[in-house]
Amino acid sequence: MSNAKDNFNVADLTAALNDEDRAGLVNALKDKLQTLAGQHSDVLESLAPNVRKRVEVLREIQSQHDELEAKFFEERAALEAKYQKLYQPLYTKRYDIVNGVVEVEGVTNEAAKEQEEDKADEEKGVPNFWLSAMKNNEVLAEEISDRDEGALKYLKDIKWCRIDEPKGFKLEFFFDTNPFFKNSVLTKIYHMIDEDEPILEKAIGTEIEWYPGKSLTQKLLKKKPKKGSKNAKPITKTENCESFFNFFSPPQVPEEDEDIDEETVWQQN
């Protein structure tokens, strides 16, 4: 695993959400594509000699194209790595400003002087920076419920980290101490199929350690007992609900092809 911590921007998270929807489709099609590959040689043998020769030349052209494309992806990866290192000092400065570690030049002390009697309540940094950034993205805004906002106000930073073995990347969400869960870091790891443009194979999220009664991914329903019932206490049950924090509990992709409903897979694409 690479130790280099790279920047995260909201577009990265949006792309990650979209990639998850394709994981089931990829696994469902793996075996099918392998079967079709085995049929290619039979099709080639059935062609007339002159046509077969032309097809063989076309395949060679495609092979040359694939070699160039492989070099393109290799050079692009090196270029991305170069600029991630150049970006890093900027991300460190952003973190320090957002979380009030440092003060920016040009900020006057007038407000502080006016509030000398109430310095303890003075806000540092940029409150709710990441919550605001995420809500300004159309895709992410739909994932964030009103209940989620209270917890996301404690979000201090988000980092992106490349993974070498297996290939993929990791998103890390750093939280301040909060009344919702114990975790200081929530992680989402993506394993990618590195064939030309990477495609998501599977995702693994952190198990959130919710404090009692604070889970944002479940809600408690209470139902009054029927009249005349011997049990006068309300009936309660727990039900899953929509929440941004479901992001850390991705659906598991079946290992076996027969476990996937073909119609459902195509609808997810």
TrEMBL record:
<protein>
    <recommendedName>
        <fullName>Nucleosome assembly protein</fullName>
    </recommendedName>
</protein>
<comment type="similarity">
    <text>Belongs to the nucleosome assembly protein (NAP) family.</text>
</comment>
<dbReference type="GO" id="GO:0042393">
    <property type="term" value="F:histone binding"/>
</dbReference>
<dbReference type="InterPro" id="IPR037231">
    <property type="entry name" value="NAP-like_sf"/>
</dbReference>
<dbReference type="GO" id="GO:0005737">
    <property type="term" value="C:cytoplasm"/>
</dbReference>
<feature type="compositionally biased region" description="Acidic residues">
    <location>
        <begin position="254"/>
        <end position="269"/>
    </location>
</feature>
<feature type="region of interest" description="Disordered">
    <location>
        <begin position="248"/>
        <end position="269"/>
    </location>
</feature>
<keyword id="KW-0539">Nucleus</keyword>
<dbReference type="Pfam" id="PF00956">
    <property type="entry name" value="NAP"/>
</dbReference>
<dbReference type="GO" id="GO:0000724">
    <property type="term" value="P:double-strand break repair via homologous recombination"/>
</dbReference>
<keyword id="KW-0143">Chaperone</keyword>
<dbReference type="InterPro" id="IPR002164">
    <property type="entry name" value="NAP_family"/>
</dbReference>
<keyword id="KW-0963">Cytoplasm</keyword>
<dbReference type="GO" id="GO:0005634">
    <property type="term" value="C:nucleus"/>
</dbReference>
